[in-house]
Amino acid sequence: MSFDTLGLAPALTRAVTDAGYARPTDVQQRAIPPALEGRDLRVASSTGSGKTASFVLPALQRVVAARADPAGARATGRIGGPRVLVLAPTRELAQQVAKATSIYGRHVPGLRVATVVGGVPYAAQLKALRGPLDVLIATPGRLIDHVQGGKCVLDDVELLVLDEADRMLDLGFIDDIRFIAGCTPKARQTVMVSATFAGHVGRLANELLRDPLAIDVASHTDTHADIEQRLHWADHGAHKDALLDHLLAGREVEQALVFTSTQRDADELADRLAGIGHRVASLHGGMPQGRRNRVLDGLRRGHLRVLVATDVAARGIDVPTISHVINYGLPMKAEDYVHRIGRTGRAGRSGLAVTLAEARDAGMIHRIQRFTTQPIPVATLPGLEPKRATPTLRSGPGGRPQGHGPARGGARTGGPRRAGGGDGRFDDRRHAPRHDARREPRQPFADGPRRAPAFGRGAGGTRRPAPTRRG
Ligand code: AMP
Asked: Which residues of the chain have pLDDT under 50?
């Protein structure tokens, strides 16, 4: 199947050809035609599946149609508010969707797109919201500030997209989403994209969607076929550092995204890696948005080879040159593992996802394996094998015990290459016990600036308490 058969306007098929896409992905094939017909959709799709284009292209088709019929648009009494509203859980994802919109909309004459996210000054956003808009991409919290301040009117919204709806609900945005949906016309089209529609996401879908077409492209447990997974057991923190250093010294690492559990770990690890000569930076929700943008830009442009990040980077980052994802600290939730590793193996490339775990991480490894219904193959690096017996994950998928005993086969990366030099043998002197104070307790929302509760900011807004959120 080619993009020409989907019913898209020539301006859009030209743009996807420019982007180098030979054919639509599964989710695009299944979602674009009914979306163009105006149907509500509930799309269960895994990361890296091409889901963004599956809603951005139909959204842009509305803009193309309106450009072709300006008299029709005027007759409806539009006031210039956005025709399409996309809600995303994080700033990074919102910016990613905005980037995709400008790529797919490059041949749409005079396309007007605005992004409204938290953590950046209001002034530029207010300017963008003043003029007529085609597409508005927003995180819920900041959008509500603008709506309540009377700076943004959603009466013209024809298509509402909730991207990564499960994540938005995880972040406590459910009341915000209801509020925003209530500000848009009832007759709108609604597309909801989520890794899962179980539980409260499914209930929200029932509330917001009318006779939706359910498209289930990949279950939420799917990990990408192009991503090879590997698990290295470490005796302790110093051993984990040695494994990380070895992996990062590999020449096959084009760019690596290293995940930590906490913001402080991200900063400390980035400092240590910079100290041994890596082009590295950290990224987490405690940094001002401007700095986060510069770091991501440095990654995209290839100025950085290593990015050390918290789960703020687990979704939305789309840099095809990320060849390795390394879990230095484990995620809080098993599903975040799938999102993390989905940062590699993108756009048809293959990727390697390596998890470094200590014995105390066995419970989470077990939960991840149960969630993905597949074992993470255990590997060792020559000279860096664990000396202690490693945990046995008895009830792992398929019931196969794994991880017991030392040294099982070599890893793809071949012989030892240590950033710090040396003869490649593991040096026991580096096994100094790491003080656990490095692992600060995680707060449920430790990764985003906490907003003070807001009550009806600005004039004319509905008074309503804002739930705790980030974005
Ligand atoms: P997404 O799941 O929307 O984050 O997209 C994942 C990656 O797939 C992005 O790098 C897109 O540029 C790329 N992509 C989207 N659609 C296609 C396609 N039809 N062919 C090849 N790559 C695609």
From this structure: 219-221, 395-471
